[in-house]
Amino acid sequence: MLRKDIKFDRPGPAIVQADLDRVTAALGGIQLPQEYERYMLRLNGAAPDIVLDDRPLSQLLRVWWPVGSPGADDGHGVMLGEMHKIDVDPKVVSDLLTTHHDIAHLLPPSSIAFANSAGGGRFLFDLRPDRFGEVLHWSYLHLAGAEMLAQQPYHNVAWVARDFIDFLNRIEIEPANWNIWEAALPPDSDMDWRPE
Predict the structure, then answer these.
(1) Which CA distances in Å does 7 have to 16, 71, 114, 191?
(2) CA distance linking residue 127 with residue 150, whole number of Å
(3) Smallest Cα–Cα separation from 169: which of 178, 159, 160?
(4) What are the backbone dihedrals phi and psi of residue 83, each rounded to the nearest 5 degrees, phi first?
(5) Tell me, what's the pLDDT at 17?
(6) At a CB cut-off of 8 Å and minimum separation 6, what does 47 contact?
(7) Positive or negative: CA dihedral 49, 116, 165, 88
(8) What would the DSSP string read from start to end of 92-139?
(9) 71 in Cβ contact with 114 (< 8 Å)
(10) pTM strictly above 0.85
């Protein structure tokens, strides 16, 4: 169930199932998580915002980096950017299909980006059967060369949420004091997730 304090703003143009089917066919016939498909049909990439006192605030998600990941030194907070839309205008920067065609070769196999994050990163759906629908964060800042991508495609990926609804429910507002926020995490918060 979705939290009550999340509002959605700036949806893309209205789409129907045929539009969604066209996009998934163009993506090679992949299956998208059902709750995400429902969101797209209803809101098409609308931005989830936490609004307090009628003021939208910066949106943040906690991430769990695997031990030894280059991103682990950056902390556990990632700012949420634009959600990708399905748009009739191919020039839209946050278009789901355009983004996939532009950066899929840099992402882990069996994943698709659905939202931007600060620093050029992306939030992804893991499409592997045993982890289908889990939300990951891919860090552009920690992207290594082609050899590393071939050997360790998850070297710059952190875990975010069990599914799309869990992702939305985990959105937080930017803390006033990052040190206090970071210190509140358990010391072994990265020990539970392994990308492969």
Answers:
(1) 22, 30, 18, 33
(2) 18
(3) 160
(4) -80, 145
(5) 95
(6) 8, 9, 10, 82, 83
(7) positive
(8) -TTBHHHHHHHHGGGSPSSEEEEEEEGGG-EEEEE-SGGGTT-EEEE-
(9) no
(10) yes
DSSP symbol at 192: S
**pLDDT band, residue 171 (cuts 50/70/90):** very high
Domain annotation for the chain: domains and CATH numbers: 6-183 (3.40.1580.10)
Contacts of 106 (CB under 8 A, 6+ apart): 138, 143, 149
Could you tell me if 80 and 33 are in contact, meaning their C-beta atoms sit under 8 angstroms apart?
no
CA distance 81 to 48: 10
What does each C-alpha distance from 94 to 144, 159, 161, 179 come to in angstroms? 24, 22, 21, 32
